[in-house]
Each structure stands twice: as structure tokens, then as C-alpha cells.
Specification:
- The chain has 526 residues and is α+β, with helices and mostly antiparallel strands.
- It folds into three domains: 117 residues, no CATH class; 115 residues, no CATH class; 159 residues, no CATH class.
- It has a five-stranded antiparallel beta sheet with strand order 1-2-4-5-3. A five-stranded antiparallel beta sheet has the order 6-7-9-10-8, sandwiched between helices. The chain has a two-stranded antiparallel ribbon with strand order 11-12.
- Helix 12 packs across helix 15.
- It starts with 13 loop residues before the first helix and ends in a 54-residue tail after the last strand.
- InterPro entries: Spore_Ger, UPF0353/GerABKA_families.
- This is Spore germination protein KA.
- It comes from Paenibacillus jilunlii.
Length: 526
């Protein structure tokens, strides 16, 4: 398998090489092995070492090592300790350590996962994964029995990507739970799962998930290369992996999707994307991703195509409103008053008559205030967070207008901008718009509409030059492939989407057979 769980990175720096101990081959002496193990992991209170001498097993001396809290105590007692202590053959005076090792591995342990290792470095990662190590006197090889059973969060509804119609379960922090949820949805032998261990200190499990024959081999090769090139101490969340493997270059736009919905990941994998699940976080990654993927919601495919198309157009409109509305207000009120109807111009002039701040400072004050309120609502306890954020926005907005610091029109503009930002289903692209909006406001205050249009052209050129693992960021719009536009700005009926959209690196594959539009009973099909 390309994902070697015990791989080492050949490109480590000198400091990294000094921090990793040299491999220690197991010694025939059990006492020496336990001393080295104790020196390596320290005298931690949660590490349990149980040693059995010749008094309990006639001619054998062995030891069990496991970490309390990472193992299932019932499995350890009933699946490891009890079978070994009650097996009559192991109490014979004539059995050798080699024969006992093979008997324990192949006959005695009623556990599915049993692995071998002849170095301490091969056994320690399994110990920290919840395995129970078994070491025998006289042997330079040990075994690890899968007894993992730590506490984990149950499957709940996703918190950041809710839907009205559709599955209500999301990924958890458990890697194996995530892969099993995908297996339940993709019951095909073509589903491939490759596992990696990344992070010298954390040894975080990372699973690469894809469909063989649908995912591009060139993209897979590049993702594997970038995963193998990661050289870091720790991987604590999916953003660590995202920043290490995403295409280089300074850009505010995300080039990798993140999702906590198994159905969304299954849909992406069926379209030819590659999923990356990281142990310890409910947010998984999907790559390669284009700009238009961030405006697609899994709910688009759970309701009628006309409603889905309407909602998708609203999302694109909300994207432009969130990015441009404050800048347009600043540009028009500062430089281009002639573009406004006379009645509206008089109304705005009357509102701004007592405002001491220019339009840019006014907009910055309100935008920063709203961002502060939003962050405060997130950090506050759940019982009072929403109330404080809503009441704070209402009170501060009304007080600012009455005090003459800002105009009522600016409060409306900032509020509608913030609401439009929440319409976008992907938080990653919504956050990038927040940053671009401030740049647009400064450009509008200095160059007006000319500056806004110039910046939009620069932004479009920048997006056209982006790649996500070799796939153009604006495909299939740039380069234009008309027959692949059926699921970009609108969604056509499912029966009309017979082919999967092809990227520049992939092959066109069939999703379903040809299917004519259903006709009412009694009518002849056209």
C-alpha cells in the first residue's frame, strides 16, 4: 500500500533527526526490553505493565503492556489475559518460547487484529493506538493485540453544515468511525482506503479515500507525494494537513474543501474527488476542489432541481453582495453621487449631515463592530451567546445612529452584507470574502468604481491562474466546457446528468445510463 503506517520521512532536518531516537531492536532478555521501554515512555501512571513469571506459566516468562484509557478492559481481561492463563499447553515444561509465540498468535488469542514487531519503534505506535503488547523471554520479536476501546463522541448532527432535508449524521473525531460511515454509503469493492501516520510526536492517523477507476491517478500520485513530504511534530486538526498539501502561492481563496458530512464526502468521491479523513477532528477534506464546489450544498440533490437551482443562484448573488456592497456604497456616496436618483441622494445626504466620519471610516467601524460581536457570540456560553450577539447588534446599531456616529443607511448596508455572508454554505469561502471586502472598501474610497472594476479584473485573473492539485480553479468555466455546466450555476434534473464532469486531469466516466424525461401515463415518449 502507498500509505505505510510506519514510514519515516527521508527529508528530515538535522534537528528533527536528533529528536527521534535510534531504532532499538528487541533484546532476547525480557528485563532489558522492559527497562528500555520504561526509559522511552517514562513512569506514567496510565501505563500498565503486568509480568508473569515461571510460577504461573511453567517454562515461560512474559509481560503485558497497555495504556489504561485507550484499551477496552473487558477485551484485555477476557481476550488476552484469561486465554493465556487458562491454556494448558502453555504450562508445559517442554514448550519453547518460539512455539508458545506461534501458538499465542495463531490459536489462543480470540482477537482479530494481531501484529508483530521486532523493534521498539514498530511496537510503540501500536501501544498508543490502544493495542496490548506481549513480550516473551528469549525472543527478539513481540506481538500487539488490538484491544482498543477508548471513549469517543457519539454520532450527532453536523453543527456547521445543517440541512432541512437529508441525513442528519456527521463525522466524529474517530478515524475508524469516519471510514465506516463512508463504507456504509459506498458499498463497492472499488472504494480504496490508504492510511498514513503523520506527525513525529502525535502519530496522527490520516486516511486517503477514493474510488479506483474514477479518481484521477495523477491527482492521487500528487496527493500521496505531498502527504509523504509532511515533516512536522504534530497534526491536531485537518487544517494542518490542508496547509501542508494545498497548492502554494498567496491567495485568499481555499483550494481544498472541508466538510463534516459523510454524505457530502461520498458525493464528492463519486464525482472523482479524493477524501482525506484525519483522526481527532470531525472535519474531513476533499480535493481537488474548484471555486464552484464551494457553492454546492449536499441539500441541492435532496430536493427538486428547480428549487435547488434557484437557491444556488441566490448563493452566487449573496457572494457578490457580501464582497461588493460596502465598497459600492462607499464609491457611490464619495465619488459618484450622480448615479443615484435625486430622491435617494437627498435622503442619504440628510442622514449623513451630522455624521463626522467619512464613508470609509464609517464602514470600517461598523464592519469591525459586527466582527467583534460575531466572535463574542462564538466564544460566549451557548445559553447567552446568541442573546448577547443579537441584543448587542441591535443596541449598538441604534445607539450609533442616534449618537450621529454612523448613518442609518450604513447600518442597513453592513447588516445585509453580514446576512449575505452567512448564505454561502462553505465557511472557508465565506471567510475569504470577509478579507477581500476590506480591501475592496479601501480601493473604493480611493479610486471609486474604476478601482472596484480594476480590482475585480485582477481578482478574476488571479483565480484563473490558481490550481488545485493541477486542476484549474475555475473549471469547467475556464477553460470552458459547455456540456459540463449542468451542475455549476444551476442544477439540471438528475436523469439528465448521465456523465461525471471531467477535469483536465481525469477521464470522462459514465454516472448512469441514458434516461428520458418521465412522461405522464398514457403519453407516448418523444
Amino acid at each position: 500500500m502507498p500509505g505505510n503506517p510506519q514510514r519515516t520521512n527521508p527529508n528530515k532536518s538535522d534537528n528533527a533527526e536528533q529528536s527521534v531516537p535510534a531504532p532499538f531492536p528487541l533484546d532476547p532478555s525480557l528485563e532489558v526490553n522492559l527497562q528500555v521501554l520504561s526509559h522511552r515512555i517514562g513512569q506514567s501512571s496510565d501505563i500498565v505493565v503486568r509480568r508473569f513469571t515461571n510460577e504461573s506459566l511453567s517454562s515461560l516468562e512474559l509481560a503485558f503492556i497497555y495504556i489504561d484509557g485507550l484499551v477496552n478492559a473487558d477485551v484485555v481481561n477476557q481476550g488476552v489475559l484469561q486465554p493465556l492463563l487458562e491454556t494448558v499447553q502453555l504450562k508445559s515444561e517442554f514448550i519453547s518460547a518460539t512455539d508458545a509465540f506461534q501458538m499465542i498468535k495463531t490459536q489462543i488469542l480470540p482477537i482479530g487484529g494481531v501484529k508483530e514487531g521486532n523493534t521498539l519503534e514498530a511496537l510503540l505506535p501500536m501501544l498508543f493506538d490502544g493495542y496490548t503488547l506481549i513480550l516473551l523471554e528469549g525472543l527478539q520479536v513481540g506481538m500487539a493485540a488490538d484491544t482498543s476501546g477508548w471513549e469517543k463522541r457519539s454520532i450527532n448532527e453536523p453543527t456547521s453544515q445543517g440541512v432541512i432535508r437529508g441525513p442528519k449524521e456527521g463525522f466524529t473525531e474517530s478515524l475508524r468511525t469516519g471510514t465506516s460511515m463512508l463504507r456504509r454509503r459506498l458499498k463497492t469493492p472499488d472504494l480504496r482506503i490508504e492510511e498514513y501516520k503523520i506527525g513525529q510526536r502525535t502519530q496522527t492517523g490520516v486516511a486517503l479515500v477514493y474510488l479506483e477507476g474514477i479518481a484521477s491517478e495523477q491527482v492521487l500520485k500528487e496527493i500521496r507525494r505531498r502527504l509523504n513530504a509532511i515533516n512536522t511534530d504534530s497534526i491536531l486538526e485537518s487544517n494542518y494537513i490542508e496547509e501542508f498539501i494545498q497548492d502554494g502561492g498567496l491567495t485568499p481563496f481555499p483550494t481544498i474543501q472541508n466538510t463534516e458530512r459523510p454524505d457530502a464526502m461520498a458525493g464528492g468521491i463519486l464525482e472523482g474527488q479524493v477524501g482525506i479523513i484525519i483522526d481527532g477532528t470531525p472535519f474531513a477534506l476533499l480535493a481537488p476542489s474548484t471555486f464552484f464546489n464551494f457553492f454546492q450544498s449536499s441539500e441541492d440533490y435532496y430536493q427538486r432541481y428547480d428549487i435547488s437551482s434557484f437557491l444556488r443562484l441566490i448563493r452566487y448573488s449573496a457572494f457578490f453582495v457580501s464582497m461588493l456592497l460596502p465598497a459600492l456604497y462607499i464609491a457611490v456616496t464619495t465619488f459618484h453621487q450622480e448615479m443615484l436618483p435625486t430622491t435617494l441622494l437627498i435622503s442619504l445626504a440628510a442622514q449623513r449631515e451630522g455624521v463626522p466620519l467619512p464613508a470609509l471610516a464609517e464602514a470600517l467601524l461598523m464592519e469591525l463592530t459586527f466582527d467583534v460581536l460575531r466572535e463574542a457570540g462564538v466564544r460566549m456560553p451557548r445559553t447567552i451567546g446568541p442573546a448577547i450577539s443579537i441584543v448587542g447588534a441591535l443596541v449598538l446599531g441604534q445607539a450609533a445612529v442616534q449618537a450621529g456616529l454612523v448613518s442609518a443607511a450604513m447600518v442597513i448596508v453592513v447588516s445585509f452584507t453580514a446576512i449575505s455572508n452567512f448564505v454561502i454554505p462553505s465557511l472557508a469561502i465565506a471567510n475569504s470574502i470577509r478579507l477581500i471586502r476590506f480591501v475592496m472598501m479601501f480601493i473604493a474610497a480611493t479610486l471609486g468604481l474604476f478601482g472596484i472594476m480594476s480590482f475585480l479584473m485582477v481578482l478574476l485573473i488571479h483565480m484563473a491562474g490558481l490550481r488545485s492539485f493541477g486542476v484549474p480553479y475555475l473549471s469547467p468555466v475556464a477553460p470552458m466546457v459547455p456540456r459540463y455546466l449542468k451542475d455549476i450555476f444551476i442544477r439540471v434534473p438528475l436523469w439528465d446528468m448521465t456523465m461525471r464532469p471531467k477535469t483536465i486531469l481525469g477521464e470522462e466516466t459514465r454516472r448512469q445510463g441514458e434516461h428520458q424525461q418521465p412522461k405522464p401515463q398514457g403519453e407516448d415518449p418523444v
